[in-house]
Amino acid sequence: MARPRILVVGAGFAGVECVRRLERGLIPGEAEIALVAPFSYQLYLPLLPQVAAGVLTPQSVAVSLRRSRKHRTRIIPGGAIGVDPKAKICVIRKITDEIVYEPYDYIVLSAGSVTRTFDIPGLLDNARGMKTLAEAAYVRDHVIAQLDLADASHDENERASRLQFVVVGGGYAGTETAACLQRLTTSAVRQYPRLDPKLIKWHLIDIAPKLMPELGDKLGRSALEVLRARGIEVSLGVSVAEAAPEKVTFTDGRVLPCRTLIWTAGVAASPLVSTFDAETVRGRLAVTPEMNLPGFDGVFALGDCAAVPDLHKGDGAVCPPTAQHAMRQGRRLADNLIATLRNQPLKPYVHKDLGLVVDLGGKDAVSKPLGIELHGIPAQAVARGYHWSALRTNVAKARVATNWILNAVAGDDFVRTGFLSRQPAKLRDFEHTDAYLTPEQVREHTAALHTGT
C-alpha cells in the first residue's frame, strides 16, 4: 500500500513548525512529507526592520530548513500557484520557472500573506515593501544610496527630496521600520560632513487614529512620544493619495518631495486561497478549530492565510496573523494530521495570547508580555529575549546575539551591498503576486495532465 503523501505549502512559522512536528511524530515510513518553498530557509519576519537597518545580517534571520536531525522532508524549490482540490494536485512553479504537478493525499496550506495594497496611483511602481529578505536588503541599499546621492548633489531640491523618507503603516512593521531606519540615517549622516542632519526627515503615516492600538492607549502613546522625540513626524488619520517617483501626495493635501516610500500598511492572505471556492473571513480561509477546510477532503489551512477561530477569546473571534499563533497552530495541525492517519480524534487549537513586543531600536521599546505594560530598557530586554528564544536553531540564536553585540560595540559601516540596480525594483517584483493561477487555469492544467496533452 502506498504511503500517504503530505504536502505542506509555505515555509513560514506555521509551515515549518508543522513539518518539524511531523518529522518527530511520524514513524519512519508512515507517510511522505514534501514542503513547497522558494528558499531553503525560514524567514524570521519580525526582525526584518533590523536587517534593513544593518543591525542584523540577512543570514542571521534566514534559518536553514536543512538543519534537522530527523530530516525526512523533500523540499521543492518553488511556489504553489494553484491547487485542484478535486484532483488533489498542487500546481507549482519552480525557481527555474518550470511548472510541475505535485499530487497529495493531505495538503497543508500555510502560504502566509502578501503586502496589502490599494488602488493608489503610482503605488505599485514607486513603493517598496518590508515583507521579504530581499526587500529588507534592497531598502537598506536604497536608503544609503539616497545619502550618497544627496551628498554628491549640488541641487538643493534634489537633496531635499532624497533626504525625505516616508513609511506608511502604523502597525508593528511600519513603526519598527521607521524607528530602526531613522536610527540608521542619524548614525550614517556623521559620515557625510556635507549634509545638514536637519535636512533628513522621516515621516510615519497611518489612516488609523492611533498608533499600534493593540498595545493599548498608554503604550501606544509611549511609542508615539519616543518616535516624535527622535524627530520622526507621525501623522495619523492620513494616507497616500498618489505616489510619484520624486514626490508623495497625502490625503490631507500635502505634497512632499520624496524618493523613498516604504509601504507596510497591513497584509492580505496569499492569493493561493482564491483557488478554493470556500468561505473566507476578511480574505482568509474559514477553517474549523481543528484547522481543516470544510467541504474539502484532506485540506488543512493555518497561519496568515486561514481564519482560525480563537476559542480563548470566543464570540466569533479569529486568531491574529502573528508568529506566536502561527507556530503553535503548526504544532497542533501536525498532531491532528498524525491523528488523522491513525484514525484518532482531532483536537482544536486553543492558545491564550502571550502579549506583544515592539523593538524601536537602541534602548527604546514598548512591550506588553502577559498584559504587563513595559517601556524602555525592560521592554527592550523582553522584546529581544522573546525574539532570540523564538529562533528555531542554536546557530541562528548565536548569529543574532553576536550581531546585536557587535552592532552595539562597533556600530555600522553603512555599506551598500549591491542590491540596488539602475532600474528600481517595484513592489510586485519581490512578492510575485501576479504569478498565481485562477481556478479555471488550474483546472486547465490538471485536465491536460489527465489527458496526457
Which features would summarize this protein structure in a list?
globular; 5-stranded parallel beta sheet; 453 residues; alpha/beta; 32% helix
Gist?
With 453 residues, the chain is of the alpha/beta class. The protein has twelve helices and 25 strands.
Description:
There is one protein chain. Helix 1 (13-25) runs parallel beside helix 8 and helix 4 (133-152) packs antiparallel against helix 5 (156-162). Helix content is 32%, strand content 23%. It has helices at residues 13-25, 48-52, 123-126, 133-152, 156-162, 172-188, 217-229, 323-341, 377-390, 394-410, 427-431, 439-451, and strands spanning 5-9, 32-37, 41-43, 62-64, 74-84, 89-94, 99-103, 106-109, 113-115, 127-128, 164-168, 201-206, 233-236, 240-244, 247-250, 255-257, 260-263, 267-269, 280-281, 284-286, 299-301, 306-307, 355-359, 365-369, 374-375. 46% of the residues are buried. With 453 residues, the chain is an alpha/beta fold. Strand 1, helix 1 and strand 2 (32-37) form a beta-alpha-beta unit. The longest helix is centred in the first third of the chain and has 20 residues, at 133-152.
Helix percentage range: 25-40%
The helix/strand class is alpha/beta
Query: Uncertain runs with pLDDT below 50, 5 residues or more?
Result: none
Q: Largest sheet, described in full?
A: 7 strands, mixed
Mean pLDDT: 93
Radius of gyration, in angstroms, nearest whole number: 23 Å
Write the layout of secondary structure elements.
Elements: E1 5-9, H1 13-25, E2 32-37, E3 41-43, H2 48-52, E4 62-64, E5 74-84, E6 89-94, E7 99-103, E8 106-109, E9 113-115, H3 123-126, E10 127-128, H4 133-152, H5 156-162, E11 164-168, H6 172-188, E12 201-206, H7 217-229, E13 233-236, E14 240-244, E15 247-250, E16 255-257, E17 260-263, E18 267-269, E19 280-281, E20 284-286, E21 299-301, E22 306-307, H8 323-341, E23 355-359, E24 365-369, E25 374-375, H9 377-390, H10 394-410, H11 427-431, H12 439-451
Parallel strand pairs: 1-2, 1-8, 2-5, 8-21, 10-17, 11-12, 11-17, 12-13, 20-22
Antiparallel strand pairs: 3-4, 5-6, 6-7, 9-18, 14-15, 15-16, 19-20, 23-24, 24-25
Helix pairs in contact: 1-8, 4-5
